[in-house]
Amino acid sequence: MNLGVYIQVPFCQTKCTYCNFHTGVVAADRYAPYAFAVQAEIANHRDLYASSGIPESQIQNAVVDTVYFGGGTPSLLDPGHLRGILDAIRRTFTCEFAEVTLEADPETVTAGKAAAWADAGINRVSFGVQSFSDLELKSSGRMHRREDVYRAASILRAAGLHNLSFDLIIGLPHQTAATWRNSLDELVALTPEHVSIYMLEVDEGSRLGRELLSLGTKYSAPAVPTDDQMADSYDLACSLLSVAGFNHYEISNWAKPGRASRHNLKYWRREPYLGFGAGAHSFSGSTRWANVHDSAQYVAALESGYLPAEQIEAVSVKQAQEEEIFLGLRQLNGINLDQIEPAYAASLSEKFVTLQSAGLIEREGNIVRLAPKKLSISNEVFVELLS
Ligand code: SF4
Questions:
Q1: Ligand 1 pocket test target in 8, 14, 19, 167 with most atoms within 8 Å of CB
Q2: CA dist., res. 121 & res. 187, Å (int)
Q3: Please, what sign has the CA dihedral across residues 13, 105, 8, 203?
Q4: Do residues 48 and 307 lie in contact, with contact meaning Cβ atoms separated by under 8 Å?
Q5: Does residue 277's CB lie within 6 angstroms of at least one atom of ligand 1?
Q6: pLDDT for residue 55
Q7: What is the distance between the alpha carbons of residues 291 and 167, in angstroms, rounded to a whole number?
Q8: What is the CATH number of domain 2-268?
Q9: What is the structure's pLDDT at 116?
């Protein structure tokens, strides 16, 4: 069995206005103790799981084939610390690394770091590009500018890192149909192997989200595009990326042939992964758990020799079945009722009848998938399925 390892690095240089992640801006001298705590968690995970009541039996003989450094901004860490974490994984697990991804912000990339990343075994870099418009980047509190993306991409290619993923965000303040089109065109011209496109999330978890919900004017909230404009932007991305040779394989993800994210596919396929670091989530196949979000608490716990896991939950059969549907439907190939129904001794066809007649779902035999023209409103499908 293959296993994914996720490393959470919850530090950023500033807080972007739209960010609803549990990340913090801390002094750089906090990075090293954090990296050592992550290494300790990896090295001692068996004992730590045992003392926390986490069953590890299903993953004991698994082979780690993917590693993903996410955040936050993992590229802020000293490359030596990233290597130290990878070495801890190599020492602790049977490893056959096929994909080792580092999330990076363009302005943090230097030739020295890129060479050290490649040398440590990182072979894929996921960039938070977000936009090619400096006005959009500035108003969202991003540290980088358009030029940094070009500079960083060329540094990475020169260092031999040829599996690059670029993220864009639909719905940043000041985004217009023209600037969005330009961001897509510039992205395609830079020939990344993979693209992720996310819609702005409006919730209480970000400063911009709170401003939008209270109809305020801070953070350029009045310049955020409407829902209809965002849906049009998503549809444009689907058609332009398809023409450019990308395969749309998940609601928010496109890849050149053979370049789909092997690590992220594990999440949607309900394959096991272990998360290390503050706020990291894990799934053993039957149990889910997460570490405490606060990085200082996390480091203190590991230094005292215990695992700061705060939500340990055995996944019930009903939850597993729901996850199969929701995570499965995120993938454009859809779900196969011939596999899911016998596995859960359930008849699911009924669930999809109304959605199919509303044109939100397509059905081909026992394959069910989201209707391609309705992907931008996929949340409505998920809400309906839960009701
Ligand atoms: S860089 Fe990413 S994780 Fe950090 S504040 Fe910005 S959006 Fe959030």
A1: 19
A2: 26
A3: positive
A4: yes
A5: no
A6: 84
A7: 26
A8: 3.80.30.20
A9: 98
Please give the backbone phi and psi of residue 77, each rounded to the nearest 5 degrees, phi first.
Answer: -65, 150
For the 317-386 domain, the top CATH level (class) is mainly alpha
CA of 192 to the centre of ligand 1 (A): 21
What is the spatial order of strands in the sheet that 335-336 belongs to?
335-336, 367-370, 361-364
pLDDT recorded at residue 311: 87
Six token digits for residue 303: 């230094």
Torsion angles phi and psi, residue 34, rounded to 5: -65, -45
R_g (Cα) of the chain, nearest Å: 21
- The per-residue pLDDT for 374 is 87
Closest to 53 measured CA to CA, from 284, 292, 318:
284
Ligand 1, pocket-test mutation among 8, 11, 16, most atoms within 8 A of CB: 16
From the CB of 23, is ligand 1 less than 6 Å away? yes
Distance 350 CA to ligand 1 centre (A): 41
pLDDT at 377: 84
Predicted model pTM? 0.96
- Cα(74) to centroid(ligand 1), Å: 11
According to CATH, where is 1.10.10.920 located in the chain? 317-386
Mean pLDDT in consecutive groups of 10 residues from the start of the chain, 387 residues: 97 95 93 98 95 83 96 97 98 98 97 98 98 98 97 98 98 98 98 98 95 96 97 97 98 98 97 97 95 97 94 93 93 93 86 89 93 87 81
Segments of the chain assigned E as strands:
2-9, 63-71, 94-104, 124-130, 164-170, 194-199, 247-250, 253-255, 273-276, 281-283, 287-290, 313-314, 335-336, 361-364, 367-370
Phi, psi of 44 (to 5 degrees): -105, 15
Residues of the chain with CATH 3.80.30.20: 2-268
Alpha carbon nearest to ligand 1 atom 5, residue: 15
21 lines ligand 1 (CB under 6 A): yes
Question: Which tokens belong to 161?
Answer: 């890192």
Q: Is 36 in the pocket of ligand 1 (CB under 6 A)?
A: no
Going by C-alpha positions, the residue among 231, 229, 265 that lies closest to residue 247 is: 265
What's the angle, vertex CA 132, arms to CA 130 and CA 137, rounded to 5? 60
Q: What is the pLDDT of residue 349?
A: 84
